[in-house]
Amino acid sequence: MKYGNFLFSSESVTEGHPDKIADQISDTILDAALEDDPQSRVAIETFVTTGLVVVGGEMTTKTYIDIPNKVRQTVKEIGYDHSYKGFDHNTCAVISTIDQQSIDIAMGVDKLGAGDQGMMFGFACDETPEYMPLPITLAHRLTMQLAKCRKEGEIAFLRPDGKSQVTVNYRDWRPHSIETVVVSSQHDPLFGGDDPTAAQLKKEHKIIEEEITEKVIVPVLPENLTKKKYKIHVNPTGRFVTGGPMGDAGLTGRKIIVDTYGGFARHGGGAFSGKDSTKVDRSAAYMARYIAKNLVAAGFAQKLEIQLAYAIGVAEPVSVMVETFRTGKASGEEIVKLIRKHFDLTPAGIIKKLGLRKPVFKATASYGHFGRDGFSWEKLDMVNKLHS
């Protein structure tokens, strides 16, 4: 294979995926705390399984949150509103066990330092209008289209749980064509109930495959990348009736590659959902994305990755690194100087610049934290200043 020619795959999941249910519950509780007390410190984890939601972690806030009500409301909005779907907001048990933030951690945050040590990565490239890698962008578009078809009744048999995966053929480091598309969606049993015959299974799968191909896959994929014939796999196992928390347990922070760049860029390992912005796992990753996107939009590179690293209780990052993958119009050292000149990388500076004391986080908890309008870290408001 020629250097620069390769296949790359990324996946996405719908809001009804068990791990994403957990993320959305955690961020719903975070938003509820921030709405009444912007100084709330929150680190919430959620676990979901058949008929059960467990919410745990640490929270220091002046407000009261009706956690069972927030959980049930979120589960209902996702679409699990009846037991036949495998999960029901009315009947699921909700257990919460939440303590205050550790005073040892609080000391570091009180001094306006980072809430923990760690490294965070931000990335941007010029492959798409969103400045995101193409595979994860298309994977998210597919799962969003899947959810849209379900919610609007365009495909009546769909249930909330679903996944997509897109493989892109790159030539000379640039997207050339779509190679393979995988879409799996939970669905109603169309024939034979819980015990279908082989013939019924075959008929059911054919209907599902045709509907999803016609109404989900074809409308989403760009025509210029599908001129070459590509492979399609719809529900490859043949049936996907049992899904959501009944099909698999879900946990906050278990889809960090879906949340970010689909594996196209590195990841520091810290999850986002359920954490307030004093946790640099989240806020510094947002800042790194914001900086990378503005730098690429300003023409400093076609592809750019930033690493920020912090020590607990220390405000300034212990290191800043830039990689431009041989596409840079300036050296990494020069770009780092530019970053330090124009951006405040302290936790307090990041929070102020991006407005992260507001209840804006539930919207991030499905279909990726990056590459979508409406988030402060996606603004291109520093492009001109970077040239000054």
Summarize it:
The protein is of the alpha+beta class. The chain is 32% helix and 24% strand.
Task: Provide the structure class.
Answer: alpha+beta
Helix content: 25-40%
Main beta sheet:
4 strands, mixed
Poorly predicted tracts of residues: none
H/E topology pattern: EHEEHEEEHEHEEHEHEHHEEHH
What coarse outline follows from CA principal-axis ratios?
A: flat
**Mean pLDDT metric:** 94
How many strands? 13
C-alpha end-to-end distance: 43 Å
Write down the Rg. Answer: 22 Å
Number of helices: 10
How are the strands of the largest sheet arranged? 1-8-9-10
Q: Hey, roughly how much beta strand do the residues contain?
A: 15-25%
What does this structure look like?
This protein is of the alpha+beta class and 388 residues long. Helix content is 32%, strand content 24%. The chain is built from ten helices and 13 strands. The protein has a four-stranded mixed β-sheet with strand order 1-8-9-10. A four-stranded mixed β-sheet has the order 6-3-2-11. Strand 12 and strand 13 form a beta hairpin. Helix 4 packs across helix 5. The longest helix has 23 residues. The model has no long low-confidence stretch (mean pLDDT 94).
